[in-house]
Amino acid sequence: MAETICRALRDGSLAGEHAPALTIKDSIPSPFGFDAFTHFLCSLSSNILAAKSQSQGIVLIAFTKSPSFYYDLLKSRGIDASSTSKWLRILDCYSDPLGWRDGVGVNGISSTETVCKNVRDLDGLFSEILRLGKEMVGSSKARFSVAIDSITVMLRHAALSCVSGLINNLRSHDNVSCVFWLIHSDLHEVRTIAVLEYMSSMVASLEPMNVAAKEQRSDSESIFSLKQYSRKGKFHLRLKRRNGRVKVMSEEFHVEQAGIKFAVYSVTNEIVSQSLIPKVQFNLQLSEKERSDRENVVLPFEHQEIGKTSEIYDGRRSLSGYATDLITTSASVAEKRHSEADIVGKGEIHYLRDSDDEEMPDSDEDPDDDLDI
Amino acid sequence: MDRFVNLLDETLVHIPSSKGRVILIEDQVETSGDFVLHHLIKRSLSTESSEIVIFVALSKTFSHYDRILRKLRENGKFVFIDMLKLECPDGDEGNGVGGGLMDLYRKIQKAVEVNASTLPEQSKCVTIMMDDLSLLEVAAKGSSTYVLDFLHYCHTLTLENGCSLVVLNHNDIYSSNTVPTLILQMEYLADLIVMTEPLVTASSFVQLTVLNKGTTDEQGSSRRKLHNFHFKVKENIVEYFYPGSRA
Q1: Cβ(A178)–Cβ(A55) below 8 Å
Q2: What angle, 0 to 180 degrees and rounded to 10, lies between the N-to-C axes of helices A160-172 and A190-198?
Q3: Residues of the signal sequence (chain B) (predicted)?
């Protein structure tokens, strides 16, 4: 499922359509959105390096981490960082977003970074993104991707309408292949999140494993209220198709040292069954052997004549079926069953009547007829 | 005394005090978190580490900290920036609130640059501490946006100059109805969160929770851990112990 997102980002946009956009949102009980962001960033980077993707480069707008952090990250994920000048541009909105810093500039500026000194000016930011992107990919037809590492910070500096305008302009631009961004959902109003979700074709949200923890959000002690403080969580994806169909998928994730890992929903069932079923004396679950035994039981309505093809009655008797029926007379049926039972090794049921009391079990007589009340 | 102090140190020891760490101390009105701040100052200035502490005082005077640090055989350097009377100018005159905080940031930046240059490259370690972030919010006319901008700039300093940032804030002064942006933002930013809270049952003990978000360090090891223990502040020392180990 995370794979679905990687593929969608790789394939990019169709001519005449808006570029696919991905919102990644998280909250304090499960603050691993940035891990998911870097996962998709690295996946897209390796696709670009392998020339599998529509886009030929990434413009990364860095608000929460320094450019050097991203170079280290790419290196640690085994992505060749030496060729970054060909496919990566970092618009550094981290080092000096408001131009407060005086004196010497930020050290170590390379050809791939540009420092933005006024992040409040989103028009300037937009033209800067386009300039960097076009300069990187060269030809006028080639496309590039745009990654924003925190819309949350962007929203602190600019109004929602300006931010959504920027995103819309990016999505509808001919040179943009895809756009993706991260947002911390609990730092904004619900409507802000909704606006951004409307503008994205994919919404990935990271939630804690235990729902109870989520409900405790109203408490002031939020981050500490999680007794089972976990690096695992649920990963939900809402996918909007071109025809308007919406698909919702779920997965679970686990944050490891090497990054975030996604897995199919399996453990959840276990957790749910463990937590919901009350502790009882007897066994509710089947062991592996019991399960296989149960599967081997041939049910009475199933075809039991092993070695013969099963025939489904279609309302008419086929000629061959009629012939065999003639041969098997009623007398031989019992005999045949006997021999078959011996071959297969199946048991038989013998019914011995216990006493004469049951002599007329199906009698129409009322058994309480003789009662004199 | 050592044994008790060790418990807090144990949880803090995993933070390499060197590069780019943000520690947030959250306290409540009944349980002041000042002693954690004092502990961290002492730890930074102790004979072993000999760091430089740049202290931005917003709530307590210099003589207060002087009294606390008097017994300490200082090895590091304590730079005290007195901001007790900090008040940002109104929007109309000068650069407004942002301008006031920008001046403060430049003061810190200068202090960091001047002092960091005196240290050898390997042991470059500067800690910026703030003793009450909520008062900064007051000085900024209640605008958390400016405070966050200011914190962001302090955060950029941590990466470049091998600083760490220690900030104290109160967690019970934000209404639960409105989104408590500042404290939540700080929680996203922080690598380590220390919270003090009162216990309902035992009035003399207070609970201390340490959450190490443990972003992966250079060795590639990541320790995301939640520690929980109780403490009792006494006349001269603070006793730390595991819950239930003391009557």
Answers
A1: yes
A2: 10
A3: none
Task: In chain B, count H helices and then E strands.
Answer: 7, 9
Collect all residues from B whose CB is shorter than 8 A from any CB in A.
Answer: 98, 102, 105-106, 109, 145, 148-149, 152-153, 156, 159-160, 171-172, 174, 176, 179-181, 184-185, 187-188, 193, 195, 197, 209, 211, 213, 216, 220-222, 224, 226
The answer, yes or no, to whether ipTM is higher than 0.85 is: no
In sequence order, the 6+-apart residues with CB closer than 8 A to the CB of A318 are: A311
Pure H helices in A138-266: 151-157, 160-172, 190-198, 211-215
Model confidence pLDDT, tens digit, residues A195-243: 999 999 999 999 887 655 444 444 434 455 444 457 788 899 999 888 8
Please choose, from the candidates B66, B247, A168, the residue with its C-alpha nearest in 3D space to the C-alpha of residue B239. Answer: B247
Say yes or no for a CB contact (<8 Å) between B195 and A187: no
Between the CA of residue A90 and those of A109, B66, B160, what are the distances in Å? 11, 45, 18
Q: Are B228 and B218 in contact (CB under 8 A)?
A: no
Q: What is the CB neighbour count within 10 angstroms for residue A314? A: 7
**Size of chain A, expressed as the number of residues it contains:** 373
**pTM for the full predicted model:** 0.75
DSSP string, B35-96: HHHHHHHHHHHSTTT--EEEEEESSS-HHHHHHHHTTS---SEEEEEE-TT--PPPSSSTTH
- In 3-state terms chain A splits into helix, strand, coil percentages (rounded to 5) of 40, 20, 40
> One digit per residue, pLDDT tens: chain B, 247 residues?
444 456 677 666 555 544 567 889 988 888 888 888 888 888 778 766 667 888 999 888 888 888 888 776 666 788 888 888 777 766 555 566 677 888 889 889 888 888 877 776 666 678 899 988 888 888 888 888 889 999 999 988 887 777 888 999 988 887 766 666 788 888 888 888 888 888 766 556 677 777 777 554 444 444 556 777 777 777 777 777 777 776 5
Question: For the stretch A108-142, what's the b/e string if a residue is b when 16 or more beta carbons lie within 10 angstroms of its beta carbon?
Answer: eeeebbbbbbebeebeebbebbbebbbebbeeeeb
Which of B145, B156, B182 is the best mutation test for A, with the most CBs of A within 10 A? B156
- Chain A CA closest to residue B208: A224
Using CB atoms within 10 A of its CB, is residue B161 exposed (0-12), middle (13-18) or buried (19+)?
buried
Q: Are B246 and B222 in contact (CB under 8 A)?
A: no
Contacts of A261 (CB under 8 A, 6+ apart): A253, A254, A255
The single-letter DSSP state of residue A97 is: T
Of A57, A78, A63, nearest to A12 by C-alpha is A57
Residue appearing with tokens 């060795």: B219
- pLDDT value of residue B84: 83
Q: How many CB pairs (< 8 A) connect A and B?
A: 76
- The separation between CA A183 and the C-alpha centre of its own chain, rounded to angstroms, equals 18
DSSP symbols for A108-133: ---TTEEE-S-TT-HHHHHHHHHHHH
